[in-house]
Design a protein that fits this description.
The protein is α+β, with helices and mostly antiparallel strands. Helices cover 16% and strands 33% of the residues. It has five helices and 16 strands. β7 and β8 (126-131) form a beta hairpin. The N and C termini lie far apart (49 Å). Residues 7-132, 154-272 form the VOC domain. This is Ring-cleaving dioxygenase. Keywords: Dioxygenase, Oxidoreductase.
């Protein structure tokens, strides 16, 4: 078995109003908009990428914001919680901060030795902040909305809901993840050395209805591949095992393959390179609408169809 992902690359969800989405993730959660582009399969819709300063793999939550899409439903066959990593002493600060922003949070709980604070974004997407007791060495995005000592360090984990565990657990083993423990109906798997940014929890709920992917739900979860040759090798290995995998797709800032795990969640394997600075300087990430070469001839039409976005100046240090 050659597949050994080192952790999460990104999570992609479906949002509603794009300005409300940007306001929440930039101002309330303090992330950076590292790329403003479009859904390559539906260019009349934004694809917004939020992460750390440069959008390194493992820091990214991305959105297709469809303003008029119906409300989704969390259930089995989905990633039902996306968790971010924060410093060990910051959960109380975040509970107060979110309360001041009008966000209702759950009580602070402890799970696997970590403090967890759960809440929903304005479209109902289930999020959590998790404080790992050993900390998280990744650098935060330092902006004027969230103090650096409390800021999000990147993704911590995702939680998948399934009706039956065995086949899902087997596939995670095929992706190089290791089973690390179980708490009641929650199983944890880790990639690489584990820890924040490399974890997936599988919650087994046989009686729960299937989820409906739309506004307020996760569309897919992406895992890291170091480069294109490795990704191609992994794809061939998955095909040999009978997995229905897409061809390698050019997402401009990485290359992608997609397939479903047996429980129903759409998974992706995305390359670490080339990254988000290939078409604009680091200090200007996210400010301008970027299109792939094959959509540039339609730029005027696409820009006319997209609503305007107002971004805080802190998103681009040179403009602040």
């Amino acid at each position: 078995m050659s597949i050994k992902t080192t952790g999460l690359h990104h999570v992609t969800a479906i949002g509603g109003d794009p300005q409300r989405n940007a306001d929440f993730y930039l101002r309330t959660l303090g992330l950076r908009l590292v790329k403003t582009t479009v859904n390559f399969d539906d260019p009349g819709t934004y694809h917004l990428y939020y992460g750390d300063e440069s959008g390194v793999p493992g820091s990214l939550l991305t959105f297709f914001p469809w303003k008029d899409a119906p409300k989704g439903r969390r259930g089995t066959g989905q990633a039902t919680t996306t968790s971010f990593s924060v410093p060990a002493n910051s959960i109380g600060w975040w509970k107060d901060h979110l309360g001041r922003a009008g966000i209702t949070t759950g009580r602070i709980t402890s799970r696997d030795g970590e403090d967890v604070l759960t809440f929903d974004d304005p479209d109902g997407l289930r999020l959590a902040l998790v404080a790992h007791p050993q900390g998280d060495p990744r650098d935060p995005w330092d902006n004027g909305h969230v103090p650096a000592e409390h800021a999000i360090r990147g993704l911590h984990s995702v939680t998948l809901s399934v009706a039956e565990e065995d086949a899902t657990a087997e596939m995670f083993g095929e992706l190089g993840l290791t089973f690390t423990g179980q708490d009641s109906n929650r199983l944890r798997f880790g990639a690489g050395e584990g820890g924040p940014g490399a974890l997936v929890d599988v919650v087994v709920t046989p009686g729960t209805p299937r989820g409906v992917v739309s506004t307020g739900t996760v569309h897919h979860v992406a895992w890291r591949a170091p480069d294109e040759p490795t990704q191609a090798s992994w794809r061939a290995e998955l095909v040999d095992r009978g997995v229905n995998v897409t061809s390698i797709l050019d997402r401009q800032y990485f290359r992608s393959i997609y397939f479903r795990e047996p429980g129903g969640t759409l998974l992706e394997v995305a390359t670490d390179q080339p990254g988000f600075a290939i078409d604009e300087p680091l200090l200007e990430l996210g400010r301008a609408l970027k299109l792939p070469p094959w959509l540039e001839p339609d730029r005027e039409q696409i820009e006319h169809a997209l609503p305007k976005l107002n971004l805080p100046s802190e998103n681009n240090p040179a403009q602040a």
